[in-house]
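Extended Data, panel c. Modelled sequence:
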Amino acid sequence: MQRGGKKPQLRRCANCGKVGHNRSRCPDFAISDDTTPADMPFGPQPVKFFIHHVQNEHHQSRHVVDLKPHSTASWQNVESIKPEHSNNPEYHFYHELHEPKEEPASLILPSTPIQPVETPALPKIQPIKIIGPSFWQKTKTFFHEKENIFYKDITDAWHNLFILIKRIFAIKNLAAVAVVIIIAAIIPLQARSYYQNLKVTTDKIANNSTAGFLALQESTTAIFQSQLPTAQKSLLDALENFDAAVSEMQNNHQVLQKIASVVPLLGSEVKSRQKLITAGQKIALGNTYLLKGLSDSQANTNLTLTDRLAIIIVHLKASLPNYEQALADFNEVDVDSLPFEYQKDFEDFKTLFTSLVGDFKNLSALGSSLQEIFGGKGTRRYLLVFQNPYEIRPTGGFMGSFAIMDIKDGKIIKIDVPPGGSYDLQGQLNEYVEPPAPLLLANKRWEFQDSNWFPDFPTSADKMLWFYQHARNYTADGVIAINATVLERLLSIIGPITDSKRGLTITSDNALPTIQKIVETGPEKQDKKPKQILADLAPKFIEYFQNIQPSAAMPILVSLEEALTQKEVQAYFTDNSTESTVQSLGWGGQILPTKEFQDYLLAVNANIRGQKSDAQIKQTIVHQAVVDNDGTITDTVLIRREHTGIAGEKLYGQTNVDFIRLYVPLNSTLISAGGFTWPNEASFKAPESYYKKDTILRQTEKELGFDAESGTRITSEFGKTVFGNWIITEPGETSEVQFTYRLPFKAAVVQNTVPTEGWKNIFISNDNKIVRYQLIAQKQSGIDSAFESQIVFPSNWEPVWREGEHMKTAANGATITDVELKKDLVWSLIMQSK
């Protein structure tokens, strides 16, 4: 008789469910060397325990692991796992959000003549730690590993189902439990066949849809090359593949979709592949509209260019809603759900397509402005200025040449290139104006060739038109500045051009040095016609554009858009609506306006009497922003200019004389500056007493002060504070100058809100303060500077979100490295107090 009259307790083994022994003595745990996974579909299971990665905790886990001495095989199956996520916001998963901190490494600015600001050392780069693999991802792995549950007969299936449910309940996955019960209760005998059928059909859908995208890629490429028959054929191939995918989805997948919708690992795949199909259909429809527009624009040879553009724009606007919907569907596609061999192709296509849609939006936004620009509303006259970046000036280069172009209905009806270049206007100018002070090193009178003094292109363009009007007594409808590098772009598309007069073949590789040599040393220079070669080449380019082949039209448009983005081409129009559109697209070369709490940086170089030495200059801009405990932000900017030329070499081996201006947020306070070299004061020319003060110059450059120690001029221009000084660099040498200044605002504490969708994956304590910092770096036309930056916060702050090219987070801030400033760039950082 048992004590107390209680019945004996019969405990079941937690592993196999049988009575008479417990889990530690379960015979299923005895694994021999020849035991295979098929012999033990559910055991023995690895012993799981937690390892805490918290520095102030001992590494010994507080979870007990009882390993029996005789269970050697069990020890071999031990594996570490992470604890499941908690929905309790009070639980802070420290070890999932932060990697163990490494010893700090010094990232101080390079040594300069002025002592750098002392700042906390940045540790080695540590990416933001986002929450680890989701539970659904773990479930997916679990199901794949236990896929052979469906291979058992019905008796074993029910027995295994009992154990499986216990395990799933142990990890509280109620959705997965429901799925298993549904499969077992509704279709127990056909579980395996349904599961396999589901996998087969989803794979077929993936293969059809990804094959469709490959055909779409061919179609898009053909469109850009104006190969309309090829584009049409590839588009039809794409539609056939997508149609096959849709048929598979509709005919063989409906019941399985309902099951898969609650199975995490399959539901995600099905949803991704559905989005892939809809995205493909939308792109195909968009391409259909675009192809129709291109075909219609080429069908009638009597149409003017403006008529052709109008037709294309109409069809492009019809395509864009489809393209935008496709992008939205792309964002919901999990690339891991695609066959492995297609994943890279899909990622590449997505990147290309995203950029393409942006370009199409820009072209569509121009809309009616294209009619205005190309003379669709009457003849338009433009002042074309050709800038040489080898002699850098604020808007891109010295304006040695210009042209006047009349255009109507997209056809150039007249172009005049003065053989004497910009200097042809000197004798015709009827105004005597004092130049900006630094230009007195070259001329005592301000003239057309130096009119691009302002880095804000609309202001410089307005001044160019003023000089042109006062020299020729008529004006133009706009100014288009074209850097010499655009000639290289054009020749790479249309091929070499032969100058039979001089016996030259000009290619994209030799164009600039060849033309430069002829301008400087050719026989025409003796006749005061150094730019005659440009006048001779102009008709050849006009002839090409008037007879342009359809296959070259799209590549030229794409290259032009890139040149506009990188400021190799800048445009200004007197028509307010057109000018507003151009500026909104970032093609106007204007100084960017900034908002409160935005850091801003623009370094502007002006070569004055340094000949063409900028061809041998490599410039690096190093920026550092240090945030103090009270939120004060101190910036240090170092500019390094390396002269790689050979001393004495004509044009390129001359001393580089550069007046540099640093544009920073308005009301910034200069703390220190140094490293500058001034030209000999005797070299500056004094203007005549009767020369006028220029109105635009006086209104634009407002004197704020002068730093006596460094000789730095401080002005206010275009809503920015400007520090200006001289850098002189000899061939084979490197110059470094540095500015240190305090920003007019402090780091802004913002509300703890979610700024982007990506924040849903980041834990932020409601008690912590959030601070934002944003840096805008603007590119000067004509020079591609190397750029790097550090954003340093006190040690009690940590990054929680960042955005921008080549930006990496550190324990107390972020770094920006390996950037070539080919276009305007923005970086954003949000910090959280610890």
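DSSP finds 19 helices and 25 strands in the chain. This feature is highlighted in the accompanying rendering.
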